[in-house]
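Exercise 7. Predict the joint structure of the components listed below.
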Amino acid sequence: MTPPTTQALTDEARRDLLSMMVLIRTYEEAIRAAYYADKKPAFDIGAGLVPGEMHLSAGQEPVAAGICAHLTHDDAITATHRPHHLAIAHGVALRPMTAEIFGRETGLGHGRGGHMHLFDPSTHFSCSGIIAEGFPPALGQAFAFQRQGSDRVAVAVTGEGAANQGAFHESLNLAALWQLPVVFVVEDNDWGISVPRSASTSVASNADRAVAYGMPGVRVEDNSVEGVHAAAGEAIARARSGGGPTLIEVHTLRLWGHFEGDAEGYRPDLKSVPEHDPIPIYRDQLLAAGALDGGQYQAMQKSAGEQVQDAIDFAKSSPTPDPLGHLSYVFSEGAHS
Amino acid sequence: MTSTLSNKQSLALAVEPEAGKRKLSTSKAMQEAISQRMARDESVFVMGEDVGAYGGIFSSTTGLLDRFGPERIRDTPISESAFIGLGIGAAVEGMRPIVELMFADFFGVCMDQIYNHMAKIHYESGGNVRVPMVLMMAAGGGYSDGAQHSQCLWGTFAHLPGMKVVVPSNPYDAKGLMTAAIDSDDPVVFVFHKGVMGLGWMAKNDRSIGAVPEEEYVVPIGKARVAREGTDVTIVTISLSVHHSLDVAEKLASEGISVEVIDLRSLVPLDREAIVRSVFKTGRLIVVDEDYQSFGLSGEVIAVVAEHDPTLLKRVSRVCVPDVPIPYAHELEYAVLPTPARIEAAVRDAVAK
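Solution:
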């Protein structure tokens, strides 16, 4: 299936997409800075303000901005181990999200989850650190929405490596069989950690796999935010109107390593990666089209900087969890075991 | 569709009532619990392989399709990861799914949804997201179904944090525990041994058919039951092995050997007090478990007592499945199962010293 023709977006809508991408990038840069701030001189993954694995989404902003422009907080998203861009674009509040990443009591999960396990029931956002395993729960959210007779949808996002997992295929079949209001999105960033897509995937486009399940499939090339916006708009409208699931693959970009600390020695195109950064490309496109001026862009950056700084300050000043609380929340009721 | 149930609304009975004269099989008792809660709460639904027209391979859902229709009694594709995960997502959005994994043995194809998602979401979310879901599954051997269809495996689920694990031995408990599991705001793994279901096509213990009240009631999850009082030796056990243990206890009573039988009824939460209280009285502990011996329930029960006060234990032993795959041939299978003969030998050994 060819991507839907890009509907004419207003200049304001285009600026909104760019603005969201700038906010996400600003956020990821700040998390990156905080992550490395106290890991010097020797890198210790478990040390510092922000410990643990850190999978940042720089370069993949077009996916989040393009999809989430069509969603409300009543719609659900399940994201991956690389979840920040989707959380931000879906409207998860930056303060508790950041506090969770910093392992603080004020975080979304009171410090029990961490950056791969962000749960925000107020926006029906969740993520999972296990490849493809966010798909099945998204089916259930869509199932509940369907049973409620609402037009709410669930969006399940994963990477191209996940398209070779069983849960991916089981989920597509069941969603199509039951015509669930769900949209599946594959972020093809070319790399499964260090293994290139060419060494993992038997088809040129994962969107082709939709045929096997009797659902529409569409691939968006060139990390185009407007291409994602158009494809997601059509798919989400179809799901809302009872037309069942769609599979979208977006050829996106992993601008940084798989996780922070990844030197990417396996990546032959390493030097040229920044040339494909979607933010300056889209900014220049809008500037050239007269949809954006320099002042507006600076204002976006300033607003993003303020929002992110506020969230970082909130996280840093929040208390760490009481170690004596480590048994809390295993169950909602009764003893912990 | 959000549940109208909460624990506060549960019809918990303070004391186990006189069950009356009506008798049901364990499978019918489970069906009745599900049916009564479904009638009360639109958010409860059943999903799994062959739960519809077939009624569940081990009759856990017989008759429900006719009463509630295919929207609420859903046959699924053979896609356990997808439909167990679907249950999780539906539970997160306020429904109360009852999902059947046909055999406990099949967890290998879907365990990530069970232990990394169903069981962890509440904790990872800092208590902000609840997963009120029942995952029921058949377990156990004794009918030559081989190494991949005869395992109990409840100890594996109990080992992993975040799921309650209930294992009824009889119809009364099966109904009350199923009702409690549906009402629970936490995920509950409900393991039913095929040998306690009262099926017409499999050898069964007489106690797999028993008195069950018609009204709704709850058996609290996490409370063991003293199935038989005794003074010489304590058997701590669960599921079908409860009946074998009771049979042995009855036989040995005529010889003046007094056996106390504790039916744990749930592994998580584990009723540690009930275990310690009984061993305090008898000083001799035998754990009978149809799950594998090592790294499981039997070791855990003994550790409970040892950590509390090791001097309580004059004798301790266990009758479990040794650490081999369940064999096919009848003679071999019955050599590894915790048969009445093995239990009796263990009791005689315990009281002889």
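Discussion. Chain A has one domain: 11-38+49-203+211-262+290-318.
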